[in-house]
Amino acid sequence: SINPPRIVAVSHVPDVAVPSAWHTDHRPMLPPRLTPSGSGPQTASASGSAQANEPTMLPPRIGYTSQHSRYTQEYDRWARWTYASPPAETISLKILAHYEGGPKRGCSQSTVFGNICEGKKDINALITAHNLVPIALDTIIPKVKRFCPTFAWCFEEFTVHDTEWVDLAEHHSPVPFFYSQCLQPACKNPKAMTFKPKQFTLYVVVPAVQWLDYEAF
């Protein structure tokens, strides 16, 4: 005919057996509720109506260690250390930046440069030579960096000396380095010794070879 009937496409979907449990309420299942009595978790019913009206009890927090229980003690300990008064017997330091050698050969063992001089006070008089080294280096190295920031200083080669040219890094004695120089006879009893605070001088020394490299820089 002139107007043939309209053709309608029909999809052929395979018949799949659907379990009967799928036809129940599809609302999400609530997690098991923890009971305080420890009788075990209670399983939510299929409808979920009973548990939906009750707040869900979450499990206890985890991840904390026993260190948290000592927070108060640690806080008090660090507070006492931070605000502790300096030791009764103290010395002060005068620390200068030097380079090895003098302006004229044989004139001196070292020469000050850059007018770099810093003072430190309230240093424990019982400090050893080994512990004086980092104090001197930490005080002077930032000043040397500012003195010439473009030069590649090798700070590992710097040494620390006293006025007698003792290399403190090589002085391995456990005896306090300056303490004996602070003892003097007591006024009322000359046989007894009393402590008198003093100031001592230390030099942070740039090796001669490195200083020559700086001058040629």
Automatic annotation (TrEMBL):
Region: Disordered, residue numbers: 22-64
Ranges of Polar residues composition bias in the record: 36-54
Protein name as catalogued: Uncharacterized protein
Taxonomic source organism: Pisolithus microcarpus 441
